[in-house]
Please model this.
Amino acid sequence: MADKQVMIMALDESDHSFYALDWILTQFFSPPSDSAFKLIIIHAKTSPVSAIGLGGPGSTDVLHLVEADLTKTAEKVISRAKDLCTSRSVTDVQYEVIKGDARNVMCEAVEKFHASVLTLGSHGYGAFKRYI
Model:
């Protein structure tokens, strides 16, 4: 197959997100050589200001600490995704960490990579929790 369709997987550090990745690998990449898709895994890294909100005095002191923590989280997410893909023998995967709000990052990624499919995990909220 010359040109595969692009499937984007939005991934964060939650177990729900990794369950979704595992499901995708099982449903669409098993066996890996027969897949009709090229998988691109994207982690949206929020800005430190978004993570701590509008701060008062002293907030600039912690911005670099928050940035370091967000970077470490992104590295862990991508590392865990690579391990899961490798364990499923899926090697033709592109990994991206893109700064920005997840909603905007994913919409822009769909356009940038001309994705046919965008997959997202669930936060695990039940119907009642979503309503509130």
